## 1
Amino acid sequence: MSHCLVLGAGAQGTAIAASWRGAGGTVRTLSRRPATADRDGWEAHVGDLTEPAAVRAAFAGIRHAVLTLPLEFDPAVVSRIIDNVIDAAEVELLVYNTANRLPDTMDAPAAFTTRRRAAEALLASRVPTVVLRPSIYLDNLLAPRVRRFLEQGVLRYPLPADIVVTWSSLFELGEATTAALRRPDLAGTAWDLGSTATLDGPGLAAALSATTSIRYEPDDPTQFESSLAPWIGARNAVAVADTYRWVPEHRPGLYSNASASAVALGVPPTGIGDWLSRVNWGRP
Ligand SMILES: NC(=O)c1ccc[n+]([C@@H]2O[C@H](COP(=O)([O-])OP(=O)(O)OC[C@H]3O[C@@H](n4cnc5c(N)ncnc54)[C@H](OP(=O)(O)O)[C@@H]3O)[C@@H](O)[C@H]2O)c1
C-alpha cells in the first residue's frame, strides 16, 4: 500500500484516510490548517487547494490520491481547484469523491452543477480518475439539531416522507475509496455509492427506533438552513439547503437507485445495524 494524498481533510477526508490507514497504507492530508497532529503513517500538509504551488507540493511523490471538494460552491473557485489538481497529479489513480449523487441536468443548484463539471473535467483530463458519487450520509443524523429532535422521539430531515434514499455512510465512503484506489483498471468510470439502507422517511425512523418508537417529520429546508449557518456560514448553508429544496420537485428519485458499486468494487454493503453499532448510536 502506498502513500495516499487525501485532499480535504474534513469528516469525509478523515474517514477515507482512516480506511486507507486501516488497510496498511500511509496518508498525507492537505488542508489550510493542520488537520491532524502528525503521527505514525499520517502526514498533515498545510496548503490551499486554490494555490497551484501548494497543490503541486502536496502531490510530490504521490501515486494515489483522493479529492473531496470542500464547502465551496463558486464555479470559478471550484474550477481553479480542479485545474490545479489536473496540473499537479502524476498519479496511478485519483479518486474524486463528489460527496453527493449528481443529477443529469445542469439546471440545478450550484452544489450539484459545480461537482458535475468537476467530474466531467477530471474524466476528460489526462489524470486517470474514478468518480464516486455517494448518496446522503447517515452520519448527517449525528448533527446536534437532528439528535435534539430524536431525543423527543422525532426524526426530522429536510426531505418529504415519501422520498426514498439509499443511504451512504462515511464507513462505506472510506471502504469504497480504498477499494477503488487499488483498481487502476476502473479509470474513466463513475459509480454511485449508497448501500447502507434503502428507506423512505418513516422507514428510516422505524429502523432507528430502539426502545421507543420514533416518528418521521420532514424538516423545513429554511429552518434546516438556519441551523447550518452558524457552522458552515450563511452562503454555504443556502447552497446545501437548496439541494434539499430542489430534489423533491425536480429529481425525487435522485437518491433512490440501488448502487452497483459494492459489487464492482468488491465492498460488502454495510447494513444500518452495522452503522448504528459502529457509530455507537445508543438510544437517542
Ligand atoms: N452527501 C452528504 O450527505 C454530505 C454531507 C456533508 C457534506 N457533503 C458535501 O461534502 C463536501 C465537503 O464537505 P465536508 O463536510 O467534508 O467539509 P468539511 O468537513 O468542512 O471539510 C473540508 C476540508 O477541506 C479543508 N479545506 C477547505 N477549504 C480548503 C482549501 N481552500 N484548501 C485546502 N483545504 C481546504 C478543510 O480544512 P481547512 O478549513 O483547515 O482548510 C477541511 O479539512 C461539500 O460539497 C458538502 O456539500 C455531503
Note: The longest strand covers residues 26-31.
## 2
Amino acid sequence: MCYIEKDRILLFFFICFSFMFYGIGINYATEQKLAAEQAEELTTEQLAEATTELPAEATTTAQAEQKTYVVVIDAGHGGNDTGASYHSEEGKINEKTVNLKIAKYMKAALEQYDNVKVIMTRTKNVYMDLDERTDIAVENDADLFISLHNNSLEGAGGYASGSSVCVAIGNAKKELSTESQKLGCNFVYELGELGLKQNGLMMRSAVSYEYKNGKPADYYANIRNPLKHGIIGIIVEHAFIDNADDFYDYLCSKEQLQKLGEADARAVARYLQLPAKDSGEVLASLSDYNVKICRIGQSGKAKKFYRTYYK
Ligand SMILES: [Zn+2]
C-alpha cells in the first residue's frame, strides 16, 4: 500500500466515524429535546390537573355564604346634650366626650376581626336625637346597634358603681330579645374581666308605650326602636362617671378608655364568633353564663334575680 492509499483509507474511516458520532450526537440531542418536551407537557398536564383540583368554585361559594355583620356603634349624647359629668379639680368631664373616645377605640379594635363592618353614628361632638341614631342602623341594614354610655347616680336600679347592660325585656320579637340578652351577657362578662363591678343585665318596661301585642314596650328608645326594625339594640353603661372610684379607676385616662373599647369589641367578637384578622382565632363562646338581672316593671319597682344563658 502506498502512503496515498493509506491516507485515503484513514480519511474514509475518519469520515465514517465522524458521521457515526454525529448521528449519535443528533440522536442524543433529539432524545434530550423530546424528553424535555415530554417533561414540559407533563408539567402542563399536571398544572392543568392541579388547576381543576383547586376548589375555586367551592371557595367562592364559601366566601359568598360567609355573612358580613353590620355593627353600629353609637357614642351616647353629644353637642348640647352632655350626658352625666364628673366634677374633678381640673374641671368638668362630660359623659359625651368619654363615650366618643370609647366608641373610637371600640371601632378600631373591632376592625381587627373579619366578617364585620363597623359604622359609627357620630365621630364628632355633635347633637343627634335618638331617631337619627336608629335611622343610621336601619339604613345600613345593621345586625347590632350598640349604644355606649356611662352611668350616674340618677340611673335606674339603685346602683352607684359598676357596669350595667340594658337589653330587651322580651315582650316583643322574643328571639331577637333573647339574642339582645345574650349579647348583653358578653358585655357583662368582658367588663367584669376588667375588674368592674358587674350589675348585670337591666330590663326596663316603658310606663306608657306598648308593643302591638299590648305588652309594655322597652323603656329605652335605643332598644325599642331597633327591635321594631329587627335589629338587636343594647345600651352599655360602662361605669358610673360621677363615682370617684369608677372615674379614676376606669374613665380618666386614654389607656383606661382604650381598655373599655377593646373589651366592648371582644364582647361583640365573642358573641358573633368573629375570627381575628391576624390569627384567625375565634374567642370561645360563653357557656352556662349565670348573670344578675335587674327587671324594672311599669310601676318602677326593681326585681333582682339570676338567669343562666348559653346552657
Ligand atoms: Zn348616657
Note: The longest strand covers residues 198-210.
